[in-house]
Each structure stands twice: as structure tokens, then as C-alpha cells.
Amino acid sequence: MAATLTAEGHTARVTGAEEACASADVIVTATTTRAEDPPLFEAGWIRPGTHLSCMGADAPGKRELPPALFDRARVFCDLAAQARRMGESQHAPEDTVLVPLGEVLTRRAQGRTHARDITVFDSSGIGLQDLSLALALLKKMDICL
User: Fold this and answer.
1) Rounded alpha-carbon distances, angstroms, from residue 94 to 35, 40, 70, 79
2) Is 78 assigned a catalytic role?
3) Is residue 21 helix, strand or coil?
4) Fewer CB atoms < 10 Å away: N or C end of the chain?
5) How would you label 13-49 residue by residue, b for 16+ Cβ within 10 Å and e otherwise?
6) Cα(103)–Cα(66) distance, integer angstroms
7) Catalytic: which of 25, 58, 78, 142?
8) Exposed, middle or buried, 77 (CB in 10 Å: 0-12/13-18/19+)?
9) What is the rounded average pLDDT of the residues 97-102?
């Protein structure tokens, strides 16, 4: 992938997970790892101000994040009850506050409150949101249905 990106004029190089996490502003996880597998990275590798979008934990028993990260992060989700049952948040401590993204979008809850906040979006998936986004994109691209 790095070779392909470089050939297209982008700056890319292969690095280890610790270095990648330590220098990233945004991390997206989209794997099939399970709770019995080791986490993808260590919680201490994530620097303040990083945002993580977690998409792989979409069923009971799946996990990508180190549980200790929940102690350092503000956690947002599509639907709290679903995230607790089948999302990344099924592995979060019980007292972890899950803020529905819709609450932030409608200004009923705050998103990032400080530039140093570590934020996690636990995307367990809601089909209606996917459909709404797809329709909005098609409309924006002026594609008739």
C-alpha cells in the first residue's frame, strides 16, 4: 500500500503500530479481532488529541481497543444500548459515559471539549443511518433513483 501511495505522489512509509499510533491524529479500526485476541495497540501509545473511529467491534465478543483506553477517552456511539451489547463499549467499564453522536449533532451534548481530549467513536452500525447517508450522497452527486 505504501508503494502504491508513493507512486501516486503521496508521502507514505511502513512503520510499526506504536510509532503509527503515537503520531496519528486519527485512527480507524476496522478488523475482525475478538476479545480473546490481544488488542491492536497499547492504550499508552495514544497521545492526547487523537480521535479513534472504531468499526470492527460490531458483534458480541469482538474487540479492537485496549480496555485501559476507556479510562482516558470520551466515548461517542451511534446508540448506547447497542454499543454496550455489541460494540467496542461492551468491554468498557460500567461507569463509562457513552454519548450518542446524534446528541452532539443536535447540540444536546458536547463533543470534544478540549484539544487534548482523546475521543472514541464506537460505531456498532445502524442501518437507517447508512441508508440516509447513501441517499444524501446520491442526491449531492445528482444521481436519480
Assistant:
1) 17, 22, 10, 16
2) no
3) helix
4) C
5) eeeeeeeebeeeeebebeeebeeeeebbbebebbeee
6) 26
7) 58
8) buried
9) 94
Closest by Cα among 37, 85, 103 to 65: 37
CB-based contact 61:37 (threshold 8 Å):
no
* Amino acid of residue 109: A
CB atoms within 10 A of CB 122: 30
CA distance 59 to 51: 22
For 34, which DSSP code?
B
pLDDT tens, position by position, 60-88: 999 999 999 999 999 999 999 999 999 99
Nearest CA to 64 among 5, 106, 122?
Answer: 122
How is residue 141 written as a grid cell?
452527486
Task: Report the length, in residues, of the chain.
Answer: 145
Q: What are phi and psi of 92, to 5 degrees?
A: -80, 150
How confident is the model over 47-59, as a mean pLDDT? 93
Written as one letter, the residue type at 45 is W
